[in-house]
């Protein structure tokens, strides 16, 4: 019979092996903590036990505290209590680390007397990414092991390091090339036999290193993460190691951890953690769906986007054929790719040899016939439905059976594209975001006929490419751009009602975005939106007038702002203000001073409203999926959880009521709350109620 307890205990030849088995990642849930405490007590009391090894089943050692327990009433023993038991144990204990030892997992290992790991181990204190500090002694023990100046950046940035690096830093005592458990047993027996006082990190105040070195590291951390409360709290906790006794510093760390746990920013970051993982579950997908093998890719169109997508494949080790209609266009595309890699080499973020390996995986070819051997073809040509249908019609003839046929369209109808082939089941959207080799988001657009297998293949491929794939339904603009269109329309409208571009931008920066909408459009170029508007018969009076005046953004030296002399930071331009005022007058829109609160709400609330409609139509499966789209594709500030999470914290009723008031005040019917949002407001429901309706 399989032992179902989450902590196993077995003694062989004087060594007790305490083995954690809590799939999928051995998180330190309440039963694990209780089991660990009991096992340590049992091993301490058993005269047959000379030494102890803590090990774990599966691919991870321990992924840390159980994040799903956060915010709930703590169930004893708490992790600090378990670690105190470890610390007080009179017998030597070694952690046998196979796979990830993160957060509380590393804290357990640090409370042991030594650490032995397999080469695939990954160690880190990533709590800061959840808006927290390590809360079970990590801020005190790691500095006492490798020095405060070395330990601080690891926890304040939350980066995980590999076993070789951990060995170099002295976090690990030994690396096990072969049998990890055997190596850990050998190590712990040697400690027992030596009979020396057990090495406890709590006593190693001497290893903290010079205070000045720590303060210099602290200044660097605070400069990089000036507005990150958890990073600043890490600094305070490590500083306590110099100023307080070990016990006092542990109490300070615990209080800080519990205080941050209540912080709205940490709650939002925890939501992000689970939302990102939930996107992997595709609604309606049979559990046993097997993705197809992808060994060779083709990208049609060597423009900026196509070249970027080819780089994404090459970066992930997948050979790719970049296809153009003419040699000149192909040459330009390949040059652009080589130029982008050259910049990375210049900056030191890419080794020249690795650049060469990546470039060797990209083969340029003229003519669609070159797509014949590809397992996946990504079309990335101009946004023209007829052109795309023509290409897919040809691909249907050329591509091998079972090849995934994907379009990188940003807003066109996937079904209309799929119908140009006799294999619509293999057709879907793979919408990359610009720059494709940088942005994490991948909208995987499911057509009416797309098969589960094709969908699973695209999602699996997206992960292999290092992207965050989110499955969305087909509609104009899908999830991200459809919501962005609502924000852009209000940004334009706010200008006409009296706000300046810099006031609109400043409001979104204050909200937490890195850039406002106008600075962003200036960077991307105004012509992109202009072309789309022309193709779809839409207008945006201010943006159109700027384009007609040749103000196409940074690349033209002028857009919403002035970039005279090649400046990267724009300055307000009186000519733009005059142009806006002239259009307001022509359209008869009265101008007034508009406060920051109204600007922010009129930019953000219509997006939340659109998100509600997207859920009701089943275009997104869960509110969290929409959040993941905005977090990874549009730099929504992570500590605000995403638009739907933010909307939920305010409540649908509040958002709907404000939108209705703005619609009245501005005489702008597009601000009226949708039927979907109004229903939630009326019935006091959360956004997930809409997702259930759609399922
Ligand atoms: C902490 O430790 C605080 C302490 O300092 C103090 C305490 C007092 N809890 O990522 P995956 C789930 S804070 C609960 O897809 P991978 C995850 O939701 C913690 N659940 O796998 C998913 O569930 P589902 C510090 C967790 O192989 C499943 O496991 N630690 C946790 O790509 C698979 O996850 C961290 O922040 C957890 N801690 O990557 C580490 N971790 O299948 C967080 C995972 O239902 N974890 N789940 O969707 C990770 O970074 C990755 O999960 C890991 C595996 C690298 C371990």
TrEMBL record:
> What InterPro entries does the record point to?
3-OHacyl-CoA_DH_NAD-bd, 3HC_DH_C, 6-PGluconate_DH-like_C_sf, ClpP/crotonase-like_dom_sf, Enoyl-CoA_hydra/iso, NAD(P)-bd_dom_sf
* Pathway(s) of this molecule: Lipid metabolism; fatty acid beta-oxidation
Arranged from A to Z, the UniProt key words for this protein are:
Fatty acid metabolism, Isomerase, Lipid degradation, Lipid metabolism, Lyase, Multifunctional enzyme, NAD, Oxidoreductase, Peroxisome
Q: Which domain of life is it from?
A: Bacteria
Record field: catalytic activity: a (3S)-3-hydroxyacyl-CoA + NAD(+) = a 3-oxoacyl-CoA + NADH + H(+)
| Cellular compartment(s) | Peroxisome
What SUPFAM superfamilies does the database record attribute to this sequence? 6-phosphogluconate dehydrogenase C-terminal domain-like, ClpP/crotonase, NAD(P)-binding Rossmann-fold domains
Q: Name one Pfam family in it.
A: 3HCDH
Ranges for domain 3-hydroxyacyl-CoA dehydrogenase NAD binding: 297-474
Ranges for domain 3-hydroxyacyl-CoA dehydrogenase C-terminal come to 477-563, 599-684
According to UniProt, the name of this protein is Enoyl-CoA hydratase/isomerase family protein
């Amino acid at each position: 019979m399989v032992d179902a307890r989450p902590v196993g205990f077995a003694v062989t030849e004087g060594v007790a092996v305490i083995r954690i088995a809590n799939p999928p990642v051995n998180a330190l849930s309440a039963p694990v903590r209780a089991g660990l405490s009991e096992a340590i007590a049992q091993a301490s009391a058993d005269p047959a036990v000379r030494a102890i090894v803590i090990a774990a089943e599966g691919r991870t050692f321990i992924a840390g505290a159980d994040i799903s327990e956060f915010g709930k009433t703590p169930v004893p023993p708490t992790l600090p209590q378990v670690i105190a038991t470890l610390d007080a144990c009179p017998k030597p204990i070694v952690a046998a680390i196979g796979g990830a030892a993160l957060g509380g997992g590393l804290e357990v290992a640090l409370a042991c007397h030594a650490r032995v790991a397999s080469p695939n181990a990954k160690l880190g204190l990533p709590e800061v990414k959840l808006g927290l500090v390590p809360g079970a002694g990590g801020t005190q023990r790691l500095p006492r092991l490798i020095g405060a100046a070395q330990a601080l950046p690891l926890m304040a940035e939350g980066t995980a390091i590999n076993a070789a690096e951990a060995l170099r830093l002295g976090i690990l005592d030994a690396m096990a090339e072969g049998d990890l458990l055997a190596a850990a047993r050998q190590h712990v027996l040697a400690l027992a036999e030596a009979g020396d006082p057990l090495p406890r990190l709590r006593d190693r105040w001497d290893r903290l290193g010079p205070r000045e070195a720590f303060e210099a590291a602290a200044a660097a951390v605070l400069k990089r993460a000036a507005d990150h409360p958890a990073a600043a709290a890490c600094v305070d906790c490590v500083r306590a190691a110099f100023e307080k006794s070990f016990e006092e510093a542990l109490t300070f760390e615990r209080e800080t951890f519990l205080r941050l746990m209540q912080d709205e920013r940490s709650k939002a970051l925890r939501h992000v953690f689970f939302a990102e993982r939930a996107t992997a579950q595709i609604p309606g997908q049979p559990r046993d769906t097997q993705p197809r093998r992808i060994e060779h890719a083709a990208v049609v169109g060597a423009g900026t986007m196509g070249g970027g997508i080819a780089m994404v494949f090459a970066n992930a080790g997948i050979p790719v054929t970049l296809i153009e209609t003419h040699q000149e266009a192909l040459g330009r595309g390949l040059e652009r790719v080589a130029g982008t890699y050259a910049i990375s080499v210049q900056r030191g973020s890419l080794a020249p040899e690795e650049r060469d390996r990546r470039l060797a995986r990209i083969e340029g070819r003229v003519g669609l016939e070159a797509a014949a051997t590809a397992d996946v073809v990504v079309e990335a040509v101009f946004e023209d439905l007829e052109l795309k249908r023509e290409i897919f019609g040809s691909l249907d003839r050329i591509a091998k059976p079972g090849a995934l046929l994907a379009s990188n369209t940003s807003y066109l109808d996937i079904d209309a594209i799929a119908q140009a082939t006799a294999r619509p089941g293999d057709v879907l959207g793979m919408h990359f975001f610009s720059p494709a080799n940088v942005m994490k988001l991948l909208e995987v657009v499911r057509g009416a006929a797309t098969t589960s297998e094709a969908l699973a293949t695209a999602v699996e491929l997206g992960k292999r490419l290092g992207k965050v794939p989110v499955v969305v339904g087909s509609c104009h603009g899908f999830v991200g751009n459809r919501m962005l269109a609502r924000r852009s329309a209000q940004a334009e409208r706010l200008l006409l009602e009296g706000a300046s571009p810099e006031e609109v931008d400043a409001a979104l920066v204050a909200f937490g975005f890195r850039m406002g909408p106008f600075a962003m459009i200036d960077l991307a170029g105004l012509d992109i939106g202009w072309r789309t508007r022309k193709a779809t018969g839409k207008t945006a009076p201010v943006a159109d007038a700027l384009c007609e005046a040749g103000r196409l953004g940074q690349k033209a030296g002028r857009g919403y702002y002035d970039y005279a002399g090649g400046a990267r930071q724009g300055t307000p331009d009186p000519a733009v203000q005059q142009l806006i005022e002239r259009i307001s007058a022509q359209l008869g829109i009265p101008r007034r001073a508009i406060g920051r609160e109204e600007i922010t709400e009129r930019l953000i609330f219509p997006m939340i409203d659109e998100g509600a409609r997207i859920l009701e139509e089943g275009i997104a499966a869960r509110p969290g999926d929409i959040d993941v789209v905005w977090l990874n594709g549009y730099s929504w500030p992570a500590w605000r959880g995403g638009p739907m999470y933010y909307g939920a914290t305010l409540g649908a009723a509040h958002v709907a009521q404000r939108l209705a008031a703005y619609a009245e005040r501005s005489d702008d019917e597009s601000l009226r709350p949708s039927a979907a949002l109004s229903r939630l407001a009326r019935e006091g429901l959360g956004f997930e109620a809409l997702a259930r309706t759609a399922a």
